[in-house]
Design a protein that fits this description.
Distance between the termini: 35 Å
Number of domains: 1
Shape: globular
Strand content: 15-25%
CATH superfamily: HIT-like
Order of helices and strands: HEEEHEEH
Strand order of the largest sheet: 1-2-3-5-4
Radius of gyration: 16 Å
Number of strands: 5
CATH class: Alpha Beta
Oligomer: single chain
């Protein structure tokens, strides 16, 4: 079954396209966190960014860099890059323009013991 992003890429659902190349499609998020919030989506339909093959993965990040640089130049704001992966089962990257006042910089409160436990579990 096609994701909503695949339907957008194929033109079955309208979008505000800002960039397209052979492997990727970028468009404005219709539920933006800030004005100019963009989604960069690979045309190949995979659930998670890390499931992309090397060529598509590298192409995605080149597109992210290209779009983010354009956004920063036009909007005059830093660009927050987020890979969330829970809202649509199709790999995508959020590019969110922000000012220092907007970004709260929230952090989780963790003890050194909890940090150590997580680091040990995640160690390769």
């Amino acid at each position: 079954m096609s994701t909503i992003f695949s339907k957008i890429i194929r033109g079955e659902i309208p979008s505000y396209k800002v960039y397209e190349d052979e492997k990727n499609y970028a468009f404005l998020d219709i539920n933006p966190e800030t004005a100019g919030h963009v989604l960069v989506v690979p045309k190949v339909e995979v659930d998670k960014v890390y499931e992309l093959d090397d060529e598509d993965y590298e192409a995605l990040w080149r597109a992210v860099r290209k779009v983010a640089r354009k956004m920063e130049g036009v909007l005059g704001k830093r660009i927050l890059i987020k890979v969330i992966g829970t809202d649509v089962p199709h790999a995508h990257v959020h590019l969110v323009p922000f000012d220092a006042e907007w970004y709260s910089g929230r952090v989780a409160k963790m003890t050194p013991e909890a940090m150590g436990e997580i680091a040990e579990k995640l160690a390769l």
